[in-house]
Amino acid sequence: RAPPQRIQAIDRIRTAGRHLLTLLNDVLDLSKIDAGAMGVEAVEFELPKLLAECLDLQAASAAQRGLALRFELLGPLPVSVRGDPTRIRQILLNLIANALKFTSKGSVTLRCTVADERLVAEIEDTGCGMSQVQATRLFRPFSQADAGVARMHGGTGLGLVISRRLAALMKGSVSLSRTAPGEGSCFRVEVRVEPAPGTEWRRDDADLEALLRTEPRAPSTSEPSPLRGRVLVAEDGRENRQLITIHLERAGAEVTSAEDGRMAMSLLEDAERLGRPFDLLVTDLQMPEMDGIELISRVRAGGAGLPIVVLTAHTAGDERIRCVGAGCDDFVTKPVDRAALVEVCARWIDRRRRDEARYARACTTSVCSRRSPPRSARPGSSD
Question: Fewer CB within 10 A of the end CB, N or C, for the chain?
Fold first, then answer.
């Protein structure tokens, strides 16, 4: 076991690396927006599902701080809309993360509705709030409301600036609705979305609110839940490949590794042929022979419902759009955090098993030609 001093030094290096990565990604996003290189798209997507994903991604952070993370309907909400889900998700995640960061007790609430072809969202917290003088600095690049708070909580001072400019690209806005010292803050987002023709509308839907609500839990000090499954890791960097393998094996997984996409595809095919398929694929994107996007596309072209987690140094942007389009299920950001990696892998392996159990039950009353259901039928796509 490593000496405590070495562990502390490694933790400091990892924290500094994360901060640097966040800063670089924020600067790159802001530069692309300023250069007019950040585009928006108009595709049809399920709005309740996107909102659930935003809250799900922040649930662990809320739980660690002992905070409630809630959802409320401001008014009718269409199930399907046309807009840019990636940019909307980025804005909401920025604002929810910001609210959690400055809230030490109580709750953070996301409220939403769609009216006059505009998504209206409010993110309200019970945090420290701010004075009107502090509020005037919120939307300045590399500026935070209070220098002391910035030292305590970290951050680049770019999240709100990027969110406001992304909203402007979608003919919308991000504004501070209300705040006061000691009384929390409320931000308002408006972006253009178009309800899909004939879509269902949710009104005062208690089931929807229950789905999107998480209550505070005591922070966990225990190790992540053990992994019980076969994981294939595709990563061309030897050190990264070894580190990820160690993390997953220590969590209980049976790990096989590949140094490029072509080798990974061969291992997947061999495992399927031998009747010992993998439960999860964890893949890098930049690899020789066959890159991550091509690997994902080939796996999906074969109809496999195998969960796929992508390792990426980019927290948002075009790369993620390409990954989702190819068929990936989730992301883990580099530099890899052990707890985050194990949590994501455990979640998808669990969904895989629940999927197969449901499919097996369905097969008792019908003829099934597949070992497992196609990806579109998996519960992970709708849970």
Answer: N
Res. 230 pLDDT band, cuts 50 70 90? very high
| 69 and 105 fall within a common domain | yes
Q: Which residue segment(s) compose the domain that 321 sits in? A: 230-381
Residues 231 and 282 sit within 8 Å (Cβ to Cβ): yes
Cβ 158 vs Cβ 142: under 8 Å: yes
Mean pLDDT (whole number) for 85-108: 90
Residue at 73 is within a domain: yes
Beta carbons within 8 Å of 367's beta carbon, 6+ residues apart:
none
* Closest residue by Cα to residue 313 from 284, 348, 344, 340: 284
Nearest CA to 138 out of 108, 172, 179 is that of 179
> Mean pLDDT throughout 204-223?
52
Query: Given a cut of 60, is residue 90 above it in pLDDT?
Result: yes
Q: Left, alpha or beta for 340 (phi > 0: left; psi -120 to 50: alpha)?
A: alpha
The string of DSSP codes covering 238-260 is HHHHHHHHHHHHHTT-EEEEESS
| Domain count across the chain | 3
